[in-house]
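Reading a protein record of the kind used here takes only a little practice. The record below shows the convention in full.

——
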Amino acid sequence: MTTEPSRPEYAGPAVIPGALEWRLTIGGLASNPAEFSRDQLLAMAQVPGDASAVSCPYGSNLAGAVFEGVPLSHLVSLASPTLAARYVTVHAGPYAVSFRLDSLDGRSALLALRRNGALIEPAEGGPGRLVVGAGACFDTVKWVHHLSLDADGSTATAADIVRRRHQSDSPFAVTARDRR
């Protein structure tokens, strides 16, 4: 396993809620804002997710892992986006990444609840962890707690956080800027 240098923005919440307390909320430009517990999400249809294609030049512990969870597109549809909604922003504290709604299925975006058959625990980024099969490593968000349906992706912070950390010659310099 490759370890990453110390990065405060990726440290996770100061207090990680246990699986019983954790909730995923969905709001913003939603006709049907929603809130789900881990058990409610586990009761939904689960699909496998493959993170082997995730591009991470600084190493990742995702290689070879098999994830299972709820497609992000399904969660978005449950909230009934308004006509003005064009993006979903996935939040984990101050860290947020945005995706165009029409790109979700092509990205294989999944709110993962299991990794290699076991429930994802808080130490591994759970109870809910975003895994994007066709994405960069900064798209795989640990400790997801909120999805916001937005008119634009301007509330995303991931690209800015990554840019602050890496030199301009970083592989992230172009990819992060051109995400939207």
